[in-house]
Amino acid sequence: MVLQISDDARVRTLTLDRAEALNAFDEALYDATTDALLAAAEDPDVAVVLLTGAGRAFSAGTDLLEMHQRATDPDFVPGRHGFVGLVDALAAFPKPLVVAVNGVGLGIGTTVLGFADLAFMASTARLKCPFTSLGVAPEAASSYLLPRLVGRQQAAWLLLSAEWITATEALAMGLVWKVCEPEDLLDEAHRHAALLAARPISSLVAVKRTMTAPLRAGVEAARELENAAFAELMGGPANLEALTAFAEGREADFTSLPPGW
């Protein structure tokens, strides 16, 4: 089992559970999380979804060993939903989504915050958008949602630098709503989720729809641009160097790439 699912007070908690891999998303976890979001969207007894991680990580992003296999193995078999399906489900999710970042969050472990209605973060957690260090492009409409969430220059630093962001920095820039001590994080996030879940689901859905509907065209346009750029760069010299270095346990060296890379 790669995803724990539990219900309490009309709040469905989804806990990413590949702790041995820092909850990195492989195809199985992408599929399980997508299926869980789709089911929660349709379940009349679920008012709010709370997303968090098991162990010491929230999510280390896409599983890089599997990404390396996907980039180099022509026989690789993707999942039913994959990354694109998860982002589809996040973008269309009609009910409040609360995210509790309990530990490190990389890639989708950070960009998911663009779809969060409320985000809580442990004081010891850290976030990173590692796209340039992997030789790829942004994802999950982050090129559109993050500037709206934190401002252009903060978003530019997040997306261009591939540097870590602390909980204090994430709170100051507006990437998360509240920072909690690690032992208090889940209780505090669930308390707020349950407060929302006590409201009429029809009203919650209406409020979220009116907030997100004006953004849909921008999200779709950003995703198209990002997906095209990602497809162009994945498997290219910079990406292969980054993935090979990760598989070999060394730092990537981009200094010998062809001109323009």
Care to give the gist of this entry?
By secondary structure, the chain is of the alpha/beta class.
What structural keywords apply?
46% helix; globular; 2-enoyl-CoA Hydratase, Chain A, domain 1; alpha/beta; six-stranded mixed beta sheet; four-stranded mixed beta sheet; 10 strands; 261 residues; single chain
Q: Strands, helices and their partners?
A:
Elements: E1 3-8, E2 11-16, H1 27-42, E3 48-53, E4 57-59, H2 64-72, H3 82-92, E5 97-101, E6 104-106, H4 108-111, E7 118-122, E8 126-128, H5 142-150, H6 152-161, E9 165-166, H7 167-173, E10 178-180, H8 185-197, H9 201-212, H10 216-233, H11 237-248
Parallel strand pairs: 2-3, 3-5, 4-6, 5-7, 6-8, 7-10
Antiparallel strand pairs: 1-2, 8-9
Pfam families: ECH_1
Subcellular location: Peroxisome
Protein name: Enoyl-CoA hydratase/isomerase family protein
User: Describe the biggest sheet?
Assistant: 6 strands, mixed
Task: Work out the strand percent.
Answer: 15-25%
Number of helices: 11
Name the shape in a single word: globular
| Rg from Cα | 18 Å
Tell me what you see in this structure:
It is found in: Peroxisome. Pfam families: ECH_1. This is Enoyl-CoA hydratase/isomerase family protein. There is one protein chain. The chain is of the alpha/beta class and 261 residues long. It has a domain at 3-182: 2-enoyl-CoA Hydratase, Chain A, domain 1 (Alpha-Beta Complex), CATH 3.90.226.10. It is 46% helix and 16% strand. It has helices at residues 27-42, 64-72, 82-92, 108-111, 142-150, 152-161, 167-173, 185-197, 201-212, 216-233, 237-248; strands at residues 3-8, 11-16, 48-53, 57-59, 97-101, 104-106, 118-122, 126-128, 165-166, 178-180. Strands 1-2-3-5-7-10 form a six-stranded mixed sheet, sandwiched between helices. A four-stranded mixed sheet has the order 4-6-8-9. Strand 1 (3-8) and strand 2 form a beta hairpin. Helix 2 (64-72) crosses helix 11 (237-248) and helix 5 crosses helix 10 (216-233). The relative contact order is 0.14. The mean pLDDT is 96.
